[in-house]
């Protein structure tokens, strides 16, 4: 997933994407021909060995540096110095922009301004949640606040906006700009306008205050989605109490316990964890109302109309059409899935066979395991982390001419000794950028798989290219004395997914950092990562690296086939659940005032788009954390998967190592970031303009079982 982002004054200050956010038009930049590319270093080592080594590697001897090689960040106080430099540079650039006549130089200055702030804000966004030292986290949080204050100031700087507006109004100059520069200028202006820069002073102040309030509400709501609920332990039967954390006379319920085989435990967890919280409900209602007020203040009918500008879908009407058509196509398959789950529940629990929402995840898993004999423990020995990294290295080498090398870090460069630094190197273009791999579990580290942009790529004023820097964060178990880190099939797929984001960042070598890498529309940003899941589930790819860590035996083909087919069991019901979530998100961010309470809307939408009954006195929507980072955009996961499916089937299913197709993929989809309309990138890759029906058909066809595998394993 891409780390959470906020956008202001055209500043894409981005860090996460829950599973989780590229070279302008023309062949020159797209082929990586920027000056300043670096030569291959003799200090790099093979990537696989760096992850399967039994001993942790130390830092290179020599002078200490700061986090990510930023000298100021050798201590928490360095954030103050870094932000002061960024703010001083920003003020100088604002003065320069306001005194520069209309021309391409204006766009360059705006991008420099964006880069100056993002270099601190993006880095701080990561550090504030991932650094093990509280002092670093606190300093990073303060830096984010101070940069945010500067952004709000820029949002209301009429003179700064006027310098850009004069450029856009000069038809002769605009026609002389290359397509990427013209689009970036338009994107900057769009970001001004959605912040209310075109309003009178009183309304501008109102827009600023709404933005600030929305940010506060987002933080408060997000915190509330994760807080546990407590219940008097005597209310629950004694034989299930041990499943929950005890606090005196209370039990703490911190999740849904979806994998627990005991139906009563799952039911209790569902009803307790999702019990309505009045404060959280008030936050959500105010958040939705504030978003709607802001959208209408700046000229949009609804928040969804504002949020979907510049996306593949373009507007909420298209999203609704997509979701309703998909739901119609899924309905019969979903009903069959629910019938299978009901029969399984009846078999295991004859006294209570009615299928409820807390049953879906558990019984779908039971059906997968029973039908295809899937035991993750049988697969883990074949997926050592080092082998998986070598597999990715081999795939990227064949497909894109790219190799991954482990590079030793300097003292102070990383925040934990088990973080690995990878250099991404092209066979002819040289060093493209760096990936910091924060893969292993540690206390207080967030349990989420994420891609963070730390520094975006751009063409600097001196002609050199600013190399992109990203972090991939996973939660893998560490190696032991007797074995390297072993991945379950799900962990392996997640690794491939996040590496898809990383390659997007590395290969999106745009002229402007404002549109670099994953800084593109949300419903396109997940395409490269989801496409990597298709590679991860193809035996021809897996066979290149999956070896038993002790014997060297390759993973048998029938095990890969069974694993892939098992994912299709109850997959229609799983997808239907995602349609429900996406539809709820659209309604919440649609026309206001809402016709009913958010809980009543939840109940109606669940019954229409999901099928399993709403449980009274529960409020799942108050745990829907994606309403913060993906407000009005939750559909993006489904639409991105549809595009990835079409790209896989048309371009890579016949030969996943086709270099010519890999180069086309880079040229048409990875190279542009947000510098080209997303649907145009999809059209370039598929050589056609996909319709809503094409998106739906692609998703539904993925649910069809492979007849040969099904018969063999039956």
Characteristic terms for this protein:
single chain; 714 residues; alpha+beta; 6-stranded mixed sheet; 3-stranded antiparallel sheet; 29 helices; globular; disordered C terminus; mitochondrion; protease; transit peptide
Concise synopsis of the structure shown:
By secondary structure, the chain is an alpha+beta fold.
Shape: globular
Radius of gyration over all CA atoms, rounded = 25 Å
How many strands in all?
Answer: 13
Ranges where pLDDT stays below 50 over 5 or more residues in a row are 4-40, 707-714
Q: Report the major sheet.
A: 6 strands, mixed
**Secondary-structure content class:** alpha+beta
Number of DSSP helices? 29
In percent, how helical is the residue content? Answer: 40-55%
Query: Beta-sheet strand percentage?
Result: 5-15%
Strands of the biggest beta sheet: in what spatial order? Answer: 3-7-8-9-13-10
Gap from first CA to last CA: 36 Å
| Average predicted confidence as pLDDT | 90
């Amino acid at each position: 997933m891409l780390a959470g982002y906020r956008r202001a004054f055209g500043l894409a200050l981005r860090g996460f994407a829950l599973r989780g956010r590229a070279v302008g038009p023309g062949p020159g930049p797209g082929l990586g021909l920027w000056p300043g590319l670096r030569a291959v270093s003799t200090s790099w080592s093979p990537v696989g060995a760096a992850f399967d080594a039994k001993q942790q590697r130390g830092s290179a001897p020599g002078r200490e540096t700061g986090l990510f090689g930023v000298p100021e960040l050798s201590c928490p106080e360095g954030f103050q110095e870094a932000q002061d430099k960024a703010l001083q540079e920003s003020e100088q650039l604002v003065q320069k922009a306001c005194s520069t006549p209309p021309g391409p130089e204006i766009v360059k200055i705006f991008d420099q301004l964006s880069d100056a702030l993002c270099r601190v804000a993006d880095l701080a966004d990561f550090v504030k949640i991932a650094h093990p030292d509280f002092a670093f986290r606190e300093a990073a949080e303060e830096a984010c606040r101070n940069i945010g204050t500067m952004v709000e100031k820029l949002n209301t700087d009429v003179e700064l906006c006027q310098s850009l507006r004069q450029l856009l109004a000069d038809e002769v100059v605009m026609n002389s700009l290359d397509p990427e520069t013209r689009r970036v200028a338009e994107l900057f202006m769009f970001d001004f306008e959605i912040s209310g820069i075109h309003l009178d002073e009183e309304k501008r102040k109102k827009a600023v205050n709404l933005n600030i309030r929305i940010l506060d509400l987002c933080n408060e709501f997000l915190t509330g989605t994760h807080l546990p609920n407590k219940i008097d332990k005597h209310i629950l039967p004694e034989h299930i109490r041990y499943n929950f954390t005890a606090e005196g006379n209370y039990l703490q319920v911190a999740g849904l316990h979806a994998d627990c085989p005991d139906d009563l435990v799952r039911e209790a967890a569902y009803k307790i964890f999702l019990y309505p919280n009045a404060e959280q409900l008030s936050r959500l209602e105010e958040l939705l109302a504030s978003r709607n007020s802001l959208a209408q203040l700046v000229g949009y009918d609804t928040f969804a109309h504002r949020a979907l500008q510049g996306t593949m879908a373009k507007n909420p009407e298209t999203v609704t059409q997509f979701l309703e058509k998909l739901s119609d196509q899924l309905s019969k398959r979903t009903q069959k899935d629910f019938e299978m789950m009901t029969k399984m529940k009846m078999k295991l629990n004859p006294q209570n066979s009615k299928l409820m929402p807390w049953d879906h995840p558990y019984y779908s898993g039971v059906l997968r395991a029973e039908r295809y004999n899937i035991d993750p423990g049988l697969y883990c020995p074949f997926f050592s982390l080092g082998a998986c990294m070598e597999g990715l290295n081999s795939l990227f080498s064949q497909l894109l001419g790219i190799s991954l090398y482990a590079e030793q870090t300097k003292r102070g460069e990383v925040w934990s000794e088990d973080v690995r630094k990878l250099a991404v190197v092209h066979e002819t273009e040289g060093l493209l950028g760096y990936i910091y791999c924060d893969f292993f579990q540690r206390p207080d580290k967030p349990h989420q798989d994420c891609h963070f942009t730390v520094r975006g790529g751009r063409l600097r004023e001196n002609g050199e290219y600013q190399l992109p820097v990203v972090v991939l964060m996973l939660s893998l178990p560490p190696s032991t004395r007797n074995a390297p880190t072993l991945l379950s099939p799900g962990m392996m797929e997640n690794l491939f997914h996040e590496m898809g984001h990383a390659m997007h960042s590395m290969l999106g070598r745009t002229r402007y950092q404002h549109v670099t890498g994953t800084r593109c529309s949300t419903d396109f940003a997940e395409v490269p990562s989801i496409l990597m899941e298709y590679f991860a589930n193809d035996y021809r790819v897996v066979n290149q690296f999956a070896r038993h860590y002790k014997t060297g035996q390759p993973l048998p083909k029938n095990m890969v086939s069974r694993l892939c087919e098992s994912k299709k069991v109850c997959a229609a019901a799983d997808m239907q659940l995602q349609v429900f979530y996406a539809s709820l998100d659209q309604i919440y961010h649609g026309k206001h005032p809402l016709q009913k309470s958010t809980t009543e809307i939840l109940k109606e939408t669940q019954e229409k788009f999901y099928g399993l009954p709403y449980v009274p006195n529960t409020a799942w929507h108050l745990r829907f954390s994606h309403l913060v980072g993906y407000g009005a955009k939750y559909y993006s996961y489904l639409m991105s998967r549809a595009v990835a499916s079409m790209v896989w089937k048309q371009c890579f299913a016949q030969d996943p190592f086709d270099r010519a197709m890999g180069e086309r993929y880079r040229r048409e989809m990875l190279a542009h970031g947000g510098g080209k309309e997303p649907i145009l990138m999809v059209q370039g890759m598929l050589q056609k303009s996909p319709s809503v029906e094409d998106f739906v058909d692609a998703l539904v066809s993925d649910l069809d079982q492979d007849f040969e595998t099904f018969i063999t394993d039956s």
